[in-house]
Write a structure and sequence with these properties.
The complex is a heterodimer of chains A (189) and B (446). Chain A has 189 residues and is of the alpha+beta class. Chain A has 2 domains: 63 residues, Orthogonal Bundle (Arc Repressor Mutant, subunit A); 82 residues, Glutaredoxin, CATH 3.40.30.10. Helix content of chain A is 41%, strand content 10%. In chain A, strands 2-1-3-4 form a 4-stranded mixed sheet, covered by helices on one side. In chain A, β3 and β4 form a beta hairpin. In chain A, α3 packs across α4. The radius of gyration of chain A is 18 Å and the shape is elongated. Chain B has 446 residues and is of the alpha/beta class. Chain B folds into 3 domains: 199 residues, Rossmann fold; 96 residues, Ubiquitin-like (UB roll), CATH 3.10.20.600; 95 residues, NADH-ubiquinone oxidoreductase 51kDa subunit, iron-sulphur binding domain (de novo design (two linked rop proteins)), CATH 1.20.1440.230. In chain B, 43% of the residues lie in helices and 12% in strands. The longest helix of chain B is centred in the C-terminal third of the chain and has 25 residues. Chain B is globular. The two termini of chain B are 38 Å apart. Classes of the chains: A alpha+beta (189), B alpha/beta (446). At the A-B interface, α2, α4, α5 and α8 of A face α7, β3, β7, β11 and α15 of B. Chain A: GO terms for molecular function: 2 iron, 2 sulfur cluster binding; metal ion binding; NADH dehydrogenase activity. Chain A: Belongs to the complex I 24 kDa subunit family. Chain A: Keywords: 2Fe-2S, Iron, Iron-sulfur, Metal-binding. Chain A: It comes from Hymenobacter nivis.
Chain lengths: 189, 446
C-alpha cells in the first residue's frame, strides 16, 4: 500500500528510529502494522506530547500504511492527544472508586491551583488537565497519572502540592521512554 | 491466615529481579514442564486444578486451552490480557510490577502447553512504567536461557514481547484486544469464529488474564490435584481481590476462595472495616460490571446463609438477590454514598468506553447516562426511573460483545435494590442536589 501524501518534513530522532526498528522485530514481517500503537506513543513523546495530522502522516509514511489507517487509530484511543498540550498532562481518574474517595474535589483543587479547566492548559503552559476513566489504582484513590508516573492517595493538600512540585522540577525535555532502556536492550541482543 | 500461592514472596527485597526470584523457587514450574512433561500433560494439570479465568468471566482455563485448534504448520499464539481497566480492579498492575517474573514464568509454561512459539503480553498503555519493568525482566529471562532458542536444552523455543495499548477499556474484551494488537481500532469481532480457531492474525489463539497465567506456576509446582483441594467446591485455589472504596485498609488481598464476605470486610487481617467508623451501605463485589448489592444481601444470601468469597456463593440468588465474583474488584460504599450519583458515574464510564459499532450500546449507554444525569441533578421524573431500566433491558443481549451487559447490569441492579433512593431524588430535587446530602431511607436526610 503506497502512502498517499507528500513525503513528510518531520523526522523521528535517531534513537526513535532505532526503537521503531527494534519493535518491528516483534511481529511477523507481513503484519508490521501491529507496531502502530507503540509507534504513535513514540511519536507523541518526540513531538511535544500530541500527535498532529502531520505527525500522523509521518507515522503512516514510516510504516508504509495509508494515513487513514493512522487517523482512525489515533482518534480511537484516549491516550493520544489530538490538540497541543502543556509540558505535563495530568490524567485525573474520575471513575467510581476514585470518586468515592474525592476525585471531584481533587479536580476542583487542581483547576484552582493551575488555573486551567479540565481539557485546558494552565496559563504558564506547564499543566494540561485531562479527566480519564479508571487507571487501575482504585485502592490508592484518588489518582493522577502523568506520563510514566502514578501519583496516588491525593486526598490531602500536602499530597497534591508534593505532586505539583515534583512535576515542576521535571520541566525540561522529557526523557523519552526508550532512552531508559539502552542497557536492557544491549543485554537482550 | 490462608495460603499465599502467588504473593508469598511479594515483599522480598529484589524479588522483581531474576536472581532473587530464582533463589525463592522461581522457574521451577518451567523446568518441571519442559523437562518432565508433554504439552498435553501441562494442559491436563491446569484442567485438574479447576482454575477459572481470573479476568472476570470465570471460564475454566484448562478447558479454554483444550479448545485451541492445532492445524499442522500453522503458528498459534498465547496472548496475555494485561489491559486491566475494570473499575475497582488493580490486582494485575500489582502482580506485574511486583512479580514480573511470575507472569513471565507462567507465559513460558502456558506457551509450551499450547505450542506457541511467539507470545505477547498486551498491557494497557497507561501502565508504561510496568511495561518497562516487564521488558527488563524479559531481558533477564532471555539472558538466563529461559526465553529464546532451545530453552533449557528442551528443543522448545519461545519469543515473548510486551505490547502497549493506548487507553481503551474495550480492549480488555479479547477480540478487541486482538484487533488492537494488530494495529487497529479496538472493535470487538463477531463470534464465531472464536479466537481458538481464528485469533491473532487469523491464527489459533488463546487469550488469558494476567492472574490466570501467573496461577499456572503454583498449579504446576503443587500439581493440579493438590491445587484443587484449596478453596470451596468449584471455586478452587487462591484469588487476588482488589479492595477499594470506603474501607479502612484498601489494597490487594490474596485469599483462599471461601473466606466469608463479612470477615473479609471487617476483620483486621483484611480490610479492617468501614472507614471513619461509618456503616456499610452497599458493595460492588466483582468490578463495576457486576450488580451492586445492599449491605444485607452482600453479607448474607436471601436464604440467610453467610455469603462467601466464591464464584458460587456470590452468584447465589442470580441477579435478583445475588451478584458475581467477576474480576475480584471489591468496591465498598459507606452510608454517605449517593447510589444515584454512583450509578450515573458508572454509566458515564460505559458510555465513554463504548466502541460505538453496535447501535444498542452506542446509543443506549449515552441514553442511560443522560437520564441518570438528570435524576442525579434534580431534573428527573418517576417515568425516568422505569425508562433507564427499559433502556438497560434493550441493550442486554443485543450487542457483539459483553460491554452492553456490563453497562446494563449495574443500572438495573441499582434501581432494583435502591429504587426508593431514586424516587427520593425525583420527589425532593432540592434536597437531593444539596452538597453532601444523602438519602438514608424512609425520607430521612443526613
Amino acid at each position: 500500500m503506497a502512502p498517499t501524501t507528500a513525503p513528510s518534513k518531520l523526522q523521528f530522532s535517531p534513537a526513535g528510529q532505532t526503537e521503531i526498528k527494534r519493535l518491528l522485530t516483534h511481529y511477523p514481517a507481513e503484519r508490521s502494522k501491529s507496531v502502530l500503537l507503540p509507534v504513535l506513543h513514540i511519536a507523541q513523546a518526540e513531538f511535544g506530547g500530541w500527535v498532529s495530522p502531520e505527525v500522523q502522516d509521518l507515522v503512516a509514511e514510516t510504516l508504509g500504511i495509508r494515513p487513514i489507517e493512522v487517523y482512525e487509530v489515533a482518534t480511537f484511543y484516549t491516550m493520544y492527544n489530538l490538540k497541543p498540550v502543556g509540558k505535563h498532562v495530568l490524567e485525573i481518574c474520575r471513575t467510581g472508586p476514585c470518586m468515592l474517595r474525592g476525585s471531584d474535589e481533587l479536580t476542583a483543587n487542581l483547576e484552582r491551583i493551575t488555573g486551567a479547566k479540565v481539557g485546558e492548559t494552565s496559563p504558564d503552559g506547564n499543566f494540561t488537565l485531562k479527566e480519564v476513566e479508571c487507571l487501575a489504582a482504585c485502592g490508592f484513590a484518588p489518582v493522577v497519572q502523568v506520563r510514566e508516573q502514578y501519583y496516588e492517595s491525593l486526598d490531602t493538600p500536602e499530597a497534591v502540592d508534593a505532586m505539583l512540585n515534583d512535576l515542576r522540577a521535571q520541566i525540561h525535555r522529557p526523557i523519552l521512554p526508550w532512552e531508559m532502556l539502552g542497557e536492557v536492550h544491549s543485554q537482550q541482543q | 491466615m490462608g495460603r499465599k500461592l502467588l504473593t508469598e514472596h511479594v515483599n522480598v527485597e529484589g524479588i522483581e529481579t531474576f536472581e532473587v526470584y530464582r533463589k525463592h523457587g522461581g522457574y521451577r514450574a518451567v523446568e518441571k514442564a519442559l523437562k518432565t512433561m508433554t504439552p498435553d500433560e501441562v494442559v491436563d494439570e491446569v484442567k485438574k486444578s479447576g482454575l477459572r479465568g481470573r479476568g472476570g468471566a470465570g471460564f475454566p482455563t484448562g478447558l479454554k486451552w483444550s479448545f485451541l485448534a492445532k492445524p499442522e504448520g500453522v503458528p498459534r499464539y498465547l496472548v496475555c490480557n494485561a489491559d486491566e481497566s475494570e473499575p475497582g480492579t488493580f490486582k494485575d498492575r500489582y502482580l506485574m510490577s511486583k512479580l514480573p517474573h511470575l507472569l513471565i514464568e507462567g507465559m513460558i509454561a502456558g506457551s509450551y502447553a499450547l505450542g506457541a512459539r511467539t507470545s505477547y503480553i498486551y498491557i494497557r498503555g497507561e501502565l508504561l512504567y510496568v511495561l518497562r519493568i516487564l521488558e527488563k525482566a524479559i531481558a533477564e529471562a532471555y539472558a538466563a536461557g529461559f526465553l529464546g532458542e532451545n530453552i533449557l536444552g528442551s528443543g522448545y523455543s519461545l519469543d515473548l514481547h510486551v505490547h502497549p495499548g493506548a487507553g481503551a477499556y474495550i480492549c480488555g474484551e479479547e477480540t478487541a484486544l486482538l484487533e488492537s494488537l494488530e494495529g487497529k481500532r479496538g472493535n470487538p469481532r463477531n463470534k464465531p469464529p472464536f479466537p481458538a480457531v481464528q485469533g491473532l492474525y487469523a491464527r489459533p489463539t488463546v487469550v488469558n488474564n494476567v492472574e490466570s497465567i501467573a496461577t499456572v506456576v503454583p498449579i504446576l509446582n503443587l500439581g493440579g490435584d493438590e491445587y484443587a483441594k484449596i478453596g470451596v467446591g468449584k471455586s478452587t485455589g487462591t484469588k487476588l481481590f482488589s479492595a477499594c472504596g470506603h474501607l479502612n485498609k484498601p489494597g490487594i488481598y490474596e485469599l483462599e476462595l471461601g473466606v466469608p464476605v463479612e470477615e473479609f470486610i471487617y476483620s483486621d487481617e483484611y480490610c479492617g472495616g468501614i472507614w471513619k467508623g461509618r456503616e456499610l451501605k452497599a458493595v460492588v463485589a466483582g468490578g463495576s460490571s457486576v450488580p451492586i448489592l445492599p449491605k444485607e444481601l452482600i453479607l448474607k444470601t436471601a436464604a440467610g446463609e453467610n455469603r462467601l468469597m466464591t464464584y458460587e456463593s456470590l452468584s447465589d440468588g442470580g441477579f435478583v438477590t445475588g451478584t458475581m465474583l467477576g474480576s475480584g474488584g471489591f468496591v465498598a460504599m459507606d452510608e454517605t454514598t449517593c447510589i444515584v450519583k454512583n450509578t450515573w458515574n458508572f454509566s458515564r464510564f460505559y458510555h465513554h468506553e463504548s466502541c460505538g459499532q453496535c447501535s444498542p450500546c452506542r446509543e443506549g449507554t449515552g441514553w442511560m447516562e443522560k437520564v441518570l444525569h438528570r435524576l442525579e441533578h434534580g431534573h428527573g421524573s418517576m417515568h425516568d426511573i422505569d425508562l433507564v431500566v427499559s433502556v438497560a433491558k434493550q441493550i442486554e443481549g443485543n450487542t457483539i460483545c459483553p460491554l452492553g451487559e456490563a453497562a446494563a447490569w449495574p443500572v438495573a441492579a441499582a434501581v432494583r435494590h435502591f429504587r426508593d433512593e431514586f424516587e427520593w431524588h425525583v420527589k425532593h430535587p432540592h434536597e437531593a442536589t444539596r452538597p453532601g446530602a444523602v438519602y438514608q431511607g424512609a425520607g430521612v436526610l443526613a
